[in-house]
Amino acid sequence: MPNAVEVSAGILFRDGRVLACQRRADQSHAGKWEFPGGKREAGESIEACLRRELREELGIEATVGAELWRTTHTYPGRAPVELVFFRVDAFRGEPLNRVFADLRWLPAEQLDALDFLEADRALIARLPALLRGA
Questions:
Q1: DSSP letters of 38-93?
Q2: Torsion sign across C-alpha atoms 91, 30, 44, 78
Q3: How far apart are CA 71 and CA 124, in angstroms?
Q4: Smallest Cα–Cα separation from 89: which of 45, 123, 54?
Q5: DSSP-derived secondary structure letter, 96
Q6: pLDDT for position 91
Q7: What secondary structure letter does DSSP report for 15?
Q8: What is the SS3 assignment for 124?
Q9: Beta carbons within 8 Å of 118's beta carbon, 6+ residues apart
Q10: How far apart are CA 40 and CA 6, in angstroms?
Q11: Number of neighbouring beta carbons within 10 Å of residue 51
Q12: What is the structure's pLDDT at 1?
């Protein structure tokens, strides 16, 4: 089995809503929704990875909070993906859409109405309770 690809993702939480991001038509899993983040680079901590990805994708300087969820998922024909989701309550700047088809701020209870990546679905089912408990 190939080595897992390590990915960090941010659950940006503001005014009772969570930021969801839609993948572009030219990307794998086109049109699917996800949380912002990306692949960890060599020598980078998973938290530093998230800060870098949020700067690149949204133009913000984030304070990475508590780990909310961790999972491993394998898409057909791909290496496994090890995903670590962090709560992000504090960031400087207003999130700008630099790389996505769309951005939406939604209450956690409404995220399941979007067509999220399969790897994110278990988290979405638990997210309202996790955010209340954090």
A1: EEPPTT--HHHHHHHHHHHHH--EEE---EEEEEEE--TTS--EEEEEEEE-EEES
A2: positive
A3: 12
A4: 54
A5: -
A6: 97
A7: T
A8: helix
A9: 73, 75
A10: 6
A11: 21
A12: 45
Q: How far apart are the first and last CA of the chain?
A: 35
28 vs 36: CA distance, rounded Å: 15
pLDDT band at 2 (very low <50, low <70, confident <90, very high): low
Domains and CATH numbers, the chain: 5-133 (3.90.79.10)
Q: Tell me: the pLDDT tens digits for 16-60?
A: 999 999 999 999 899 999 999 999 999 999 999 999 999 999 999
| Both tokens assigned to 110 | 């409404």
The whole-number pLDDT of residue 132 equals 81
By CB neighbour count within 10 A (0-12 exposed, 13-18 middle, 19+ buried), where does 6 fall?
middle
Q: Strand pairing partners for 33?
A: 22, 116
The answer to whether 27 touches 15, Cβ cutoff 8 Å, is no
Q: What is the pLDDT of residues 82-108, one digit of tens each?
A: 999 999 999 999 999 999 999 999 999
Of 133, 122, 126, give the one whose Cα is nearest residue 109: 126
